[in-house]
Amino acid sequence: MKVSLFTTCLGELFYVNVLKDATEVLERLGCEVDVPEGQTCCGQPAFNSGYAKDTAGPAKQMIRTFEHSDYIVCPSGSCAAMFHEYPDFFANDPDWHERAQKVAKKTYEFTQFIVNVLHVEDVGAEFHARVTLHTSCHMSRLLGEHESHYKLLSHVKGLELVKLPNNYDCCGFGGTFSVKMFPIAEQMADEKIRHIEETKADVLVGADASCLMHIGGRMRRLGKNIKVMHIAQILNSLPGREDVDHANESGKSTVL
């Protein structure tokens, strides 16, 4: 099965190890992974801020880049969801609308693809820690994916998964929201961190680098000793493999 990896802006700039881990997991499951040249920002920052003209260019570039791929997989629920916004965005342009629909239909978030397309729930991972999961807003509300990450984590040997109280609450990142509405975003992050601490988890796991950057950055500034990891890093932890210390890798560039 051929898979094209949508790397995302944050992935390329700050989370290269996550991209590596996601690629290795997919290859271990029998996928042939390529990274198409020409991919750039999906246009989500402009789209969410209401700048339609500034969204069109990046959106068309991404459609051109990925429209010949068999499957498009993205280690970010937020960015994957943006591909599903393209058909409505180009609703008044028949040609681009049709091309956007074809791209959207074959675009999946990383865990969503593994569970719903590959029909795999146990990837053979082993990770000994008490873990809690942050479910991002775009992953659950826009993609409508609520179960794939739980199913995969539940099969990781040695992992104790603890439910995060009020996990449906936004962490406060929200793209440019965390910059424009900094005081509110900070309070939302603090509330999220309080719930994380209630679980007594050693590790916070998520499927969106943006959320992890935001929460992890705030925890660093508050001196919290909780690791922050992307789910791809957990799923690529194999028996007998020396663990890499990803402690608070997220958040190095967050404004909080």
UniProtKB/TrEMBL annotation:
A GO molecular function held by the record: oxidoreductase activity
Domain Cysteine-rich span(s) in chain numbering: 3-83, 131-215
One Pfam family here: CCG
Top-level taxon: Bacteria
InterPro entries: Cys_rich_dom (IPR004017)
GO cellular component labels: cytosol
Name the UniProt record assigns to this protein: (Fe-S)-binding protein
Organism: Sporolactobacillus sp. Y61
